[in-house]
């Protein structure tokens, strides 16, 4: 059986990791037809000599230069650190490991400025591995820390113990001036490995956690991920245990196992050799297979891509790889994802170490929701493109970069690039319309996915907005001029997509453009206060009298009819709308009382030669002025409240009255002795759709009436509008009703 043949090959190595490597190598020699891959490019083939051999780890990118490591070869035969341009030119060995300074770097490098940090799984002062630093130009190599020699069992298959750990397979991560990493063996407890911290200058080494069978159910083999002050990682599994996902604080406290793998062939999987990556509150990772990688003769190892919340809930398999079949061990999607995934937009990219259509492994993509799994490339063995992409890939724009453990022109591994088919951005969340109060800040946000880099251009209407090229548009101190529809064009190398428009509605708080004015009114007349205001409708009005609201006074004009001294006060109006409120300045109402006769002059009979006296008593706003009349003629120098006629004669026989005036108006007394009243005269004029009727103010005892005709059946009705005294005339303004209308003053 094919599994038996593979198992025989596996005996060539002693560790779990080496077993996986040989599994890939053995399958790689099975025959397979070459597949067309126009977007795949081999940038460099390792020779196994001074340039190195068998790259295990992901690359890192700075500008147009890729940096990486090989686990073997180099001038010292113990691996190398290299640099190469993204177009495949300029390959350069930056450092060759000699053993004493480290050996067999399995992990990817950490790039910080012009400095590279890394680990070598072996070598160093005690042969237990090192943490090193190196400049990107190849100078300044220095061992920051050499792990101590463990006691007890030796090698990867045993579980030797020490205080700091040994054999660091995973890469480093940096926070501030501190590096964090893992070892697969050692530690003070069970020899299952450690999590450690180390300053970038090599001081302050600290073991943060020593793994046990109980907490990790495996040993950490991959780079950690950092979110805030929490580190996340995986333990790959040992013996009958299938590994876990864990979290630990950067100070070493709060270790927690987030998920245990059970080895279930259909749902849970086993052996997470790859690390996890973080996006928001979600972890994404991959497991190598369903059970132990050494039991290939009894279990269909397949692998899975999974997601898990950072709190440990919501474990979901996004894709389960299908079993291998046929004499060449092929399938459609690949087998055994070993490298850490990379996320671009809403797409995860990764590699599978073997399987696929040509047995040599696959390059794949899958959406973060588990849909649209795609085999991007099938690696071929034998062949120069190389099998066994043992490491994950990195993304730059629309290009993936990675390495293969084997293959290349000499079978010692290769560096490759893969150009993704350009995909236009897709908008996953449209900008939303909103309503803002004038003077506040309005923000519109779009969420889009697609191959990076994504560029953004906001539009106001159809016009591009200057310097608005982020996914969020923020408008400060908005005004009516900002009321418009806004949309955004999201573009990348493949094309562009335009969002649906989002409308900004700006509402204006009330603004008083004309304050109510103080006024003086005659008692009994109509006093009106008006305010003019702008602002987003509807505007609501509430008039206040000395700060107390007036019931049912909710218009822009306050009208007080038949005013009296009780109405004399300060008036304001509170104007409100959805955006806010404003209170007017106060307007004072002063009431003037017109003269009011409380005691009329009385008729009287006088004996010839006696004195006749007429008196009047009146109230009203002072000063009051008096003018006595004989008949209709004013009597000279008779300007007091009493008229005295001395030595009366027949010539004095007449009717006498008095007119009393003040600032508010005037009033005429009734005639004493003889009262003559002339029928009042009324004038009428048309103003627009109204008629204005005027008559003298000294006419008393008459009311204004109207009728539609003058026939015998005419009905006369009293006009309800009260007259207003203007220029000594009483005036009534009344709307025209019908085709004709007649008016009269009636007693």
Secondary-structure blueprint:
Elements: H1 2-10, H2 16-28, E1 40-45, E2 60-62, E3 65-70, E4 80-85, E5 92-96, E6 110-112, E7 115-120, E8 130-135, E9 142-146, E10 173-175, E11 178-183, E12 194-199, E13 206-210, H3 213-216, E14 225-227, E15 230-235, E16 244-249, E17 256-260, E18 277-279, E19 282-287, E20 304-309, E21 316-320, E22 342-344, E23 347-352, E24 359-367, E25 374-380, E26 394-396, E27 399-404, E28 414-419, E29 426-429, E30 434-437, E31 442-445, E32 447-449, E33 455-460, E34 463-464, E35 472-475, E36 484-492, E37 495-498, E38 502-507, E39 511-514, E40 519-522, E41 527-530, E42 532-534, E43 540-545, E44 548-549, E45 557-560, E46 569-577, E47 580-583, E48 587-592, E49 596-599, E50 612-615, E51 617-619, E52 625-630, E53 633-634, E54 642-645, E55 656-662, E56 665-668, E57 682-687, E58 690-696, E59 703-707, E60 717-718, E61 724-726, E62 729-735, E63 742-746
Parallel strand pairs: 30-38, 40-48
Antiparallel strand pairs: 1-28, 2-3, 3-4, 4-5, 6-7, 7-8, 8-9, 10-11, 11-12, 12-13, 14-15, 15-16, 16-17, 18-19, 19-20, 20-21, 22-23, 23-24, 24-25, 26-27, 27-28, 29-32, 31-35, 33-34, 33-36, 36-37, 36-38, 39-42, 41-45, 43-44, 43-46, 46-47, 46-48, 49-51, 50-54, 52-53, 52-55, 55-56, 57-58, 58-62, ...
Helix pairs in contact: 1-2
């Amino acid at each position: 059986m094919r599994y038996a043949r593979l198992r025989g090959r596996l005996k060539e190595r002693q560790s779990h990791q080496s077993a996986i490597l040989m599994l890939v190598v053995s399958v790689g020699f099975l025959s397979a037809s070459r597949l067309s891959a126009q977007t795949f490019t081999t940038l460099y083939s390792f020779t196994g000599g001074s340039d190195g051999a068998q790259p295990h780890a992901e690359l890192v990118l700075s500008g147009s230069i890729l940096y990486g490591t090989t686990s073997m070869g180099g001038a010292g035969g113990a691996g190398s650190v290299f640099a190469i341009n993204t177009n495949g030119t300029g390959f350069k060995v930056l450092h060759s490991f000699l053993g004493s300074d480290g050996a067999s770097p399995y992990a990817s490098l950490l790039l910080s400025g012009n400095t590279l940090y890394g680990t070598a799984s072996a070598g160093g002062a005690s042969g237990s591995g090192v943490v090193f630093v190196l400049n990107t130009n190849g100078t300044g190599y220095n061992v920051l820390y050499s792990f101590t020699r463990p006691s007890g069992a030796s090698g990867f298959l045993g579980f030797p113990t020490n205080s700091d750990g040994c054999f660091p397979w995973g890469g480093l991560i940096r926070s501030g001036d501190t590096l964090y990493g893992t070892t697969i063996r050692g530690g003070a407890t069970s020899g299952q490995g450690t999590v450690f911290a180390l300053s970038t200058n090599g001081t302050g080494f600290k073991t943060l956690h020593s793994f046990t069978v109980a907490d990790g159910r495996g040993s950490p083999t991959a780079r950690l991920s950092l979110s805030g002050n929490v580190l996340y990682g995986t333990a790959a599994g040992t013996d009958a245990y299938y590994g876990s996902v864990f979290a630990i604080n950067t100070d070493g406290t709060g270790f927690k196992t987030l998920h245990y793998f059970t080895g279930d062939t259909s749902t849970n999987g086993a052996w997470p050799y790859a690390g996890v990556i973080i996006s928001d509150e979600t972890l994404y990772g991959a497991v190598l297979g369903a059970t132990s990688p050494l039991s290939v003769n009894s279990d269909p190892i397949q692998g899975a891509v999974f997601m898990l919340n950072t709190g440990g809930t919501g474990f979901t398999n996004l894709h389960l790889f299908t079993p291998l079949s046929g004499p060449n061990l092929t399938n459609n999607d690949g087998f055994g994802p070993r490298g850490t995934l990379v996320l671009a937009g809403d797409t995860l990219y990764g590699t599978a170490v073997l399987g696929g259509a040509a047995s040599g492994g696959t390059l794949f993509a899958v959406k973060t929701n588990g849909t649209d799994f795609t085999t991007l490339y099938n690696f071929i063995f034998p062949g120069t493109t190389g099998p066994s992409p043992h490491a994950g890939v990195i993304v730059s724009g629309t290009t993936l970069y990675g390495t293969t453990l084997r293959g290349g022109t000499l079978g010692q591994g290769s560096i490759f690039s893969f150009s993704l088919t350009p995909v236009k951005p897709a908008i996953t969340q449209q900008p939303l319309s909103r309503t803002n109060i004038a003077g506040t800040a309005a923000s519109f946000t779009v969420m889009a996915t697609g191959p990076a880099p994504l560029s953004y251009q906001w539009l106001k209407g159809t016009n591009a907005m200057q310097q608005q090229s982020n996914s969020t548009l923020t408008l400060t101190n908005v005004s009516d001029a900002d009321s418009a529809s806004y949309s955004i064009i999201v573009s990348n190398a493949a094309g562009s997509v335009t969002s649906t428009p989002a409308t900004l509605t700006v509402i204006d708080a009330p603004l008083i453009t004309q304050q109510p004015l103080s006024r003086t009114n005659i008692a009994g007349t109509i006093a009106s206060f008006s305010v003019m205001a702008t602002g987003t409708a509807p505007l609501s009005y509430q008039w206040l009298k000395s700060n107390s609201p007036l019931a049912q006074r909710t218009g822009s004009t306050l009208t007080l009819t038949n005013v009296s001294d009780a109405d004399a006060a300060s008036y304001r109006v509170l104007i409100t709308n959805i955006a806010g409120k404003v209170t007017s300045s106060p307007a004072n109402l002063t009431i003037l009382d017109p003269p009011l006769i409380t005691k009329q002059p009385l008729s009287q009979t006088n004996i010839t030669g006696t004195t006749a006296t007429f008196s009047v008593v009146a109230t009203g706003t002072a000063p009051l002025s008096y003018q006595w009349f004989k008949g209709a003629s004013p009597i000279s120098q008779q300007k007091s409240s009493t008229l005295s006629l001395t030595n009366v004669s027949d010539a004095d026989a007449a009717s006498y009255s008095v007119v009393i005036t003040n600032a508010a108006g005037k009033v005429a007394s009734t005639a004493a002795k003889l009262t003559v009243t002339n029928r009042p005269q009324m004038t009428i004029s048309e103003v627009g759709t109204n008629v204005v009727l005027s008559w003298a103010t000294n006419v008393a005892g008459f009311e204004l009436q109207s009728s539609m005709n003058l026939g015998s059946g005419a009905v006369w009705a009293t006009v309800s509008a009260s007259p207003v005294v203007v220029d000594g005339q009483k005036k009534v303004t009344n709307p025209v009703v019908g085709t004709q209308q007649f008016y009269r003053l009636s007693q």
